[in-house]
């Protein structure tokens, strides 16, 4: 360090221009431009950074000047293909420089040139963004579309119709966001995430592989059969008794899923007499749920190829564990290999469930039981470990673990 100071070596400037440009790409553009005063060799390095990040948090006067600043920077910028263009204030000038990623946080109607940008791959919109009332939409290269806290109606069906290769759609925390009829239709969509929409949703995405749905309150959701679905994370919140059959129909559309996560309580729905004939998860290999034990029995009977079972929380109301008919739980005989139970409360019903699985799971390799430290005294926990370790096991290879 002392040698570097004495010899006044500028190690940063000695780096290749490409490396310096990459470092500058992590800075807001105004700071990147300011580095031009460091040395003569730095004067125009900012102009070759493939990322333009304009985030204005200034007062009203600076906001008035901001569009002119953006225009000046764009005129002097030398990169032919712009990887990312990020704006957080309304401007009339829109990038026409082969932009790949566009991140907008604006109060603006999108110009038509944005909606016909053939190089755009990733488009993120937040705030009060609106589309032109008419005119074509052609985003021929767009693969990812993300709405976050959008506060105005967007004609989503019209927008999706202009995205022929779209693979991922995220609608995040947009409670004032109107889905334009609630129709999400795309033959190429592979990943769909919806957080708390404000309208009913109809999904038609035959190529969908990943689905994540969060609703505060239950909204009727209609989904066409998704044969390509691999993973689903479903949280439908609360719903009225009149919605039960709609929920069943929705879950039935997930019958081909391989990994399923259900973090809330649906035991009332699955207690309907039509359940056994409608919901069958023939491809399901991994299940993660938080529910009453009685709901678990339904899955043991409907997921014949289940291999991994994770129970994140066990809750009790008025229902008790009842051993299901063993012959109907095909997964216990030939596929279930791993069971993890979190928040084990050491109730008699918990022990009954564990006893049933250990006794009947003939290929089980590991069962891990996790007790909440704050809710179970140490002696009670040791007693639970001792009691469970004495349960008969259907699999000689089964390993018990406690934490």
UniProtKB/TrEMBL annotation:
Organism placement in taxonomy: Eukaryota, Viridiplantae, Streptophyta, Embryophyta, Tracheophyta
Membrane-traversing stretches: none
Domain FBD residues, every copy: 330-403
Domain of life: Eukaryota
Pfam families, sorted: FBD, LRR_At5g56370
Protein name, as recorded: F-box/FBD/LRR-repeat protein at4g00160
């Amino acid at each position: 360090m002392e040698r570097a100071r004495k010899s006044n070596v500028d190690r940063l400037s000695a780096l290749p221009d490409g490396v310096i440009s990459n470092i500058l790409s992590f800075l807001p553009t105004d700071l990147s431009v300011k580095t031009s005063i460091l040395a003569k060799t730095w004067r125009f390095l900012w102009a070759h950074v493939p990322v333009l990040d304009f985030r204005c948090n200034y007062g009203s006067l600076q906001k008035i000047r901001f569009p002119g600043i953006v225009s000046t920077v764009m005129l002097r910028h030398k990169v032919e293909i712009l990887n990312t263009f990020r704006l957080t204030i309304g401007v009339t000038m829109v990038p026409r420089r082969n932009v790949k990623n566009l991140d907008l946080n604006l109060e603006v109607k999108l110009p038509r040139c944005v909606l016909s940008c053939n190089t755009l791959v990733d488009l993120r919109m937040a705030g009060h963004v609106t589309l032109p009332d008419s005119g074509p939409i052609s985003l021929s290269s767009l693969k990812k579309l993300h709405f976050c806290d959008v506060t105005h109606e967007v004609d989503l069906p019209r927008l999706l119709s202009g995205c022929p290769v779209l693979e991922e759609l995220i609608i995040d925390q947009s409670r004032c966001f109107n889905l334009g009829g609630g129709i999400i239709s795309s033959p190429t969509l592979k990943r769909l995430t919806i957080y708390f929409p404000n309208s009913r949703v109809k999904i038609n995405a035959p190529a969908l592989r990943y689905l994540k749905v969060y609703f505060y309150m239950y909204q009727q959701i209609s989904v066409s059969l998704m044969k390509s679905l691999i993973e689903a994370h479903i949280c439908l919140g609360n719903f009225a008794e009149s919605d039960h059959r709609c929920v069943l129909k929705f879950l039935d559309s997930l019958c081909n899923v391989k990994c399923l996560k259900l973090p809330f309580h649906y035991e009332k729905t699955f207690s309907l007499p039509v359940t056994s004939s409608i919901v069958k998860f023939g491809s399901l290999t991994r299940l993660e749920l938080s529910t009453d034990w009685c709901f678990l029995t339904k899955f043991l009977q409907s997921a014949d190829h289940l291999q991994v079972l994770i129970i994140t929380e066990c809750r009790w109301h008025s229902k008790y564990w009842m051993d299901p008919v063993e012959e109907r739980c095909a997964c216990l005989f030939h596929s279930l290999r791993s069971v993890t139970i979190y928040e084990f409360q050491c109730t008699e019903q918990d022990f009954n469930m564990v006893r049933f699985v250990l006794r009947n799971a003939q290929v089980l390799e590991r069962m891990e039981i996790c007790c909440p430290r704050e809710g179970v005294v140490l002696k009670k926990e040791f007693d639970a470990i001792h009691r469970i370790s004495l349960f008969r096991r259907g699999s000689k290879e089964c390993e018990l673990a406690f934490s």
